[in-house]
Give the backbone structure.
Amino acid sequence: MQALDDIRVIDLTRVLAGPFCTQLLADHGADVIKIEQPGTGDGTRQWGPPWIGDQSAYFLSVNRNKRSVVLNLKSPDGMAILRELLVTADVLIENFLPGTLADLGLTFEGLRKEFPKLVVCSITGYGQTGPYRDRAGYDFAIQAQGGLMSVTGPVDGEPTKVGVAVADITTGLYAANAIMTALHARGRTGQGQLVDVALLDSQIGWLINLAQNYFATGKAPGRIGNDAPSIVPYRSFATSEGFLVLAVGADGQYRRLCEALERPDLWNDTRFQTNPGRVQHREELVKLLGDVFATRSTSHWCALLTPIGVPCAPINDIPTALADPQVVAREMVQTVHHPTLGEIKVIGPVAKLSETPASVRMAPPLLGEHTEAVLRDMDIGNEWLAELISRGAIQVAGS
């Protein structure tokens, strides 16, 4: 048993935020039917290099545990099949520009009347309302417009984007949470609802403490590199062999740090005994600590500080992070059998549920891999199946 194995999701999304959302639902057992356009399917199928065999690594990253059905939604037959699927669905999710779904004849008002229990989730760049509603949303632009880049990067460098598409990913997280919330509400009311999730809203939403700092002071936060605005020492230090991240958030931790470094003077100096004092005298303390950390390797400092509860870590590259014993023990790297590639590695589910755990069951699908099976479940026989293919309403794998 899985938590969402009684939920069917009709997934009209492509690229990242939407597919990441539906992958989260699929990992917890939802039957996600990914509707793709004929010929190309989800555009990320062509986003390479890198490739694994002839499959895009980008597409493989966010489409496991789903079934691919190719429908031509510009075809009356294709739309008729979609409507039949919606009869059996709990969730419809799309990430078209606002108004596109209505152009296909699927307004929210119409969907609510025809399928009153359906939860409809729309993911867009800027939402269904407001002056920017008709603009396309892109992660890089949202990181810029939403304030994130203004606080990311070195003090004297240019504003910098985060190395992964965090606006897209967090939007997918918010959307998955909102969908499950709407399903819970439906269990009490019997009614579906519209879930409106925007990349810009998501970006603003997780400014969190930095936004609150601005509300408190009226001053715009700026870039401070790897420092933290309200905690010292909470930054990276160069060592004799790489870099060390130190995350000291409590005075007791700082005192143990000074003892381990055999630098009682750094504790006895009253300027540094409280966090507000350390923040006020940040530059002096960082310089003194930097001189110490530069004398030994990162591994030395981690071995010294970790056992005494001083939070620290090496700055790993991605291969090292994925091979970390803790990451391996938590099954955050898993393998799944792909129909043409054989065994491939994927990132495992994050949340661990004791009674209804998430799982990696199916590889990301080939284009149209499940069209025939899903349509046969709808009692579409061989003759009509062949007719739909000839009309261009559907596409099956390999055609």
